[in-house]
């Protein structure tokens, strides 16, 4: 087991600190890792939403990745917001030059506030250029529905989507179930007491359940989960153990953040609750 894994986050910047690179650095650090970062985009956002996105030149994204990976012994990479096809290509090219055993990809398509963060054509590039190089991909319900080609309305649908995507892209998939009640059309009083995430790896399906927390402070949840998984993988934990430990960490960070009032919209998690 590695005591202080080095994890590179490749993602967009959130000036409010709740998501993106900022959330990744907090999560990686809280989970015992050393966080490095390559920025793909500068966003203008806060807890209320995203108002503007400026994607960086792909050459600059590639240069950041090369600068880190040619110097630091990176144990794991987390890929978040990519945005454009040229940026996806730049990331894929750098991963070919600097192979890493563990790549965790969060296919960020929209923000917590439902603002679009990735161009449609970039999703196709992500599937063909990044997923095959990934150890794990972590879509939410909407993203998994889009990738699988059918609307996910139940845990059984999550199982089917996770297995289909694993077989298609040759890597493990973690379909996150936090948004399942909304996707299934349930009203708030009908929301189940537990949230179920579905992991499909080479050994099959695993359901990971946690108590659902009714809170508005969920900004950056996906970023936090994927980067914490990367930290645990980089430390040497097996995939299933890394995912289960990360899910528990995120759950506790949500619980700790529930009473906080940071911003007027979707507040952040409390990454350093322990």
From TrEMBL:
Pfam families recorded for this chain?
Phos_pyr_kin (PF08543)
Looking at the record's lineage, which domain of life comes first? Bacteria
Q: Name one GO cellular component term.
A: cytosol
GO function terms (MF aspect): ATP binding; hydroxymethylpyrimidine kinase activity; phosphomethylpyrimidine kinase activity
The UniProt entry, under SUPFAM superfamilies, shows: Ribokinase-like
Transmembrane spans: none
Could you give a single Gene Ontology term from the biological process aspect?
Answer: thiamine biosynthetic process
Supply the EC number(s).
2.7.1.49
| Annotated InterPro entries | HMP/HMP-P_kinase_dom, PM/HMP-P_kinase-1, Ribokinase-like
Q: Does the keyword ATP-binding apply?
A: yes
Which residue ranges does the record assign to the Pyridoxamine kinase/Phosphomethylpyrimidine kinase domain? 14-269
Task: Write out the entry's keywords from A to Z.
Answer: ATP-binding, Kinase, Nucleotide-binding, Transferase
The annotated pathway is: Cofactor biosynthesis; thiamine diphosphate biosynthesis
Presence of keyword RNA-binding: no
Q: Per its UniProt entry, what is the enzyme's top EC class, as one word?
A: transferase
Q: What is this protein called?
A: hydroxymethylpyrimidine kinase
Species, as recorded = Candidatus Coprenecus avistercoris
């Amino acid at each position: 087991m590695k005591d202080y894994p080095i994890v590179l986050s490749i993602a967009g910047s959130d000036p409010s600190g709740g998501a993106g690179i900022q959330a990744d650095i907090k999560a990686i650090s809280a989970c015992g890792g050393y966080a490095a970062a390559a920025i793909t985009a500068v966003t203008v956002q806060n807890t209320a939403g995203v108002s503007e996105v400026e994607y960086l030149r792909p050459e600059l994204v590639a240069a950041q990745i090369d600068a880190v990976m040619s110097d630091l012994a990176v144990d794991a990479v987390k890929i978040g917001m990519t945005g454009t096809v040229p940026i996806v290509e730049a990331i894929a090219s750098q991963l070919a030059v600097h192979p890493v055993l563990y790549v965790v990809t969060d296919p960020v398509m929209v923000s917590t506030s439902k603002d679009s963060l990735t161009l449609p054509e970039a999703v196709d590039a992500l599937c063909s250029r990044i997923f095959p190089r990934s150890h794990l991909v972590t879509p939410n319900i909407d993203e998994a529905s889009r990738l699988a080609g059918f609307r996910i309305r139940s845990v059984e649908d999550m199982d089917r989507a996770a297995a289909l995507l694993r077989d298609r892209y040759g890597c493990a998939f973690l379909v996150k179930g936090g948004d399942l009640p909304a996707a299934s059309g349930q009203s708030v009083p009908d929301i189940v007491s537990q949230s179920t995430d579905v992991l499909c790896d080479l050994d099959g399906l695993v359901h990971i359940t946690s108590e659902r927390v009714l809170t508005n402070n969920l900004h950056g949840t996906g970023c936090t989960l994927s980067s914490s998984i990367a930290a645990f993988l980089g430390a040497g934990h097996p995939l299933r153990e890394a995912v289960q430990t990360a899910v528990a960490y995120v759950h506790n960070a949500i619980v700790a953040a529930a009473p906080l009032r940071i911003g007027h919209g979707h507040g952040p998690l409390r990454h350093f609750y322990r």
